[in-house]
Amino acid sequence: TKSKRYPLYLGEEGLTALRSIYQQLQPKPSSVLVISDSVIAPLYMKQVTEALADADIHTYVIPSGEKEKSFENYYAVQTYALEKGMDRRSVIIALGGGVIGDLAGFVAATFMRGIRFIQMPTTLLAHDSAVGGKVAINHPIGKNMIGAFYQPEAVIYHIPFLYTLPEEEWRSGYAEVIKHGVIGDAHLYDWLQKEILSLEDLRGEKLQYALQRAIAVKAKIVAADETESGVRAYLNFGHTLGHAIEAELGYGRMTHGDAVAVGMRFAHLLSERIYGIELARKEFEKWLLGYRYPKLPPELNIERLLLRMKQDKKAELGVIRMVLLKGIADVCVEEVPDVVVLDTLAQFAQ
Ligand code: ADP
Ligand code: ZN
Asked: Which structural domains are found in the chain, ordered by start?
């Protein structure tokens, strides 16, 4: 899939940006459907529809939560769009976090074989999901099992929308910012350690800067992956164990970012073992725990975690492949024998 280039707006004037991007769409949209969730819509829907002024606007609000990224909601939105007479020249705007971005994006990718969509992420975590062109819904058998590669016309990050995010959502999204620093931007990594002493520092210009650098890492890796396949796997740093923890606890018991933070600490330990090197592992741990990222929940059984890691989508033939670290912005994908993973997990759990 060749991705097209599209504008990314990041700043305090996202509504103005939306208006001008919308007005410049060619061919002119026949109508627009803003899709959002029940937490975000009461806060921001009005501002968004007002920015679109004279357009023929419809809105659709789904309940908030990961379980709403469902076929039922997908179908209900399609039905609504058809009933409202939307056509190939209609546009969808996704106003929300990853759930809305993925669901609305997949609706856009498939309605009338694909209509234009604009993404307005309202979470910090969505800096990750909004870049890279993946859209999907969940199936009871697995997350993101039904989806497509589909690029938006634009991604518009209106920074002021983020400030109502609950604290644990800040922490969750920030884990992916840290990840992007670790895998691809040593300067960002150092800057975060120096400037973001607590999550409350993630405001205004600092927030904007951190987001911009993190998005740049993601965009660069996604673009590189189109030529030399494989680098996209780097984005999985911290996720092999992170996903296993989420699945073992039951989805929603720990935020994605909290689980990834645990996974990133584990990847440090494993990297030191595999490569026989010393990383700033203790410092990294202290740094993350300072933001109140959790430790590995003691109730989790490490053999079961290992099994989950072997079932990971990215594990081929049950061989655990993990993104490991030789240094900041210096990562490799390695096949790690089960026994080594298990033994390191045992040490990590102490
Ligand atoms: P992500 O996958 O990006 O974390 P979700 O769609 O799962 O995003 O949203 C996480 C939670 O935060 C949901 O309960 C959602 O309703 C809520 N939420 C999203 N954006 C905001 C916001 N700007 N202010 C307050 N709550 C928000
Ligand atoms: Zn992630």
From this structure: 8-164 (3.40.50.1970), 167-349 (1.20.1090.10)
